[in-house]
């Protein structure tokens, strides 16, 4: 056999990041009463957050901002779009998101079956830019942790994908 090891990304490859994130963002909208604070709908909140978060993740991957800045700014900037200037609220929302998002368990369709079948013939590994404190929770809660021989998190090795 030519290949012995297969490497996977986690978010939106195996773990359905978009779906799981949307669920938690909906919870946030209700829990923190964001409509009463001036955000017109869950949909607008989620869409603005996704845009802000995407821009910040791009900067993070390019080495232009730190993990802490990304975590802090994504909700602060989202709230600012709706003229809500509340740093404490943004920090509470950020903490809630990091605590609850990785507990969601939806995988991409067929992911578990593919991993099972591949694990019969190959050693499987994860390489992820996701935050260490949440990636292991995602793997365990969604029931796929045991498929992997090694889990490589970019912050542990000091470089982000796609760095060779």
What would you say this structure looks like, in words?
The protein is mainly alpha-helical. The chain is built from 7 helices and 3 strands. It has a 3-stranded parallel sheet. Helix 6 (132-141) links the parallel strand 2 and strand 3. It is elongated and about 60 Å long.
Question: What layout of secondary structure does this protein have?
Answer:
Layout lengths: L4 E4 L8 H15 L10 H20 L5 H15 L5 H14 L10 H9 L3 E6 L3 H10 L6 E6 H4 L7
Provide a quick synopsis of the model.
By secondary structure, this protein is mainly α.
Main attributes of the structure:
mainly alpha, 7 helices, single chain, 53% helix, 164 residues, 3-stranded parallel β-sheet
In terms of per-residue confidence, which ranges show pLDDT below 50 for 5 or more consecutive residues?
none
The percent range for helix content is 40-55%
Number of helices: 7
Radius of gyration: 17 Å
Order of helices and strands: EHHHHHEHEH
Question: What share of the residues does DSSP label as strand, in percent?
Answer: 5-15%
Q: How many DSSP-defined strands?
A: 3
Arithmetic mean of pLDDT? 95
Quaternary status? single chain
Q: CA-to-CA gap between the ends? A: 25 Å
Strand order of the largest sheet: 1-2-3
The rough form would be described as: elongated
Q: What's the main sheet like? A: 3 strands, parallel
**Alpha-beta classification:** mainly alpha
């Amino acid at each position: 056999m030519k290949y012995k090891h297969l490497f996977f990304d986690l978010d939106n490859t195996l773990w359905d990041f978009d779906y799981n994130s949307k669920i938690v963002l909906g919870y946030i909208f209700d829990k923190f009463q964001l409509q009463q604070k001036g955000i017109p709908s869950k949909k607008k909140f989620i869409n603005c957050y996704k845009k802000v978060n995407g821009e910040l993740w791009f900067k993070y991957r390019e080495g232009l901002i730190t993990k802490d800045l990304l975590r802090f700014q994504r909700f602060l900037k989202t709230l600012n779009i709706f003229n809500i200037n509340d740093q404490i609220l943004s920090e509470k929302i950020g903490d809630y998101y990091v605590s609850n998002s990785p507990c969601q368990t939806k995988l991409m369709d067929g992911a578990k079956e593919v991993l099972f079948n591949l694990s019969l013939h190959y050693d499987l590994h994860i390489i992820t830019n996701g935050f260490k404190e949440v990636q292991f929770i995602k793997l365990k809660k969604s029931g796929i942790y045991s498929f992997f021989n090694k889990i490589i998190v970019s912050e542990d090795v000091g470089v982000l994908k796609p760095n060779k």
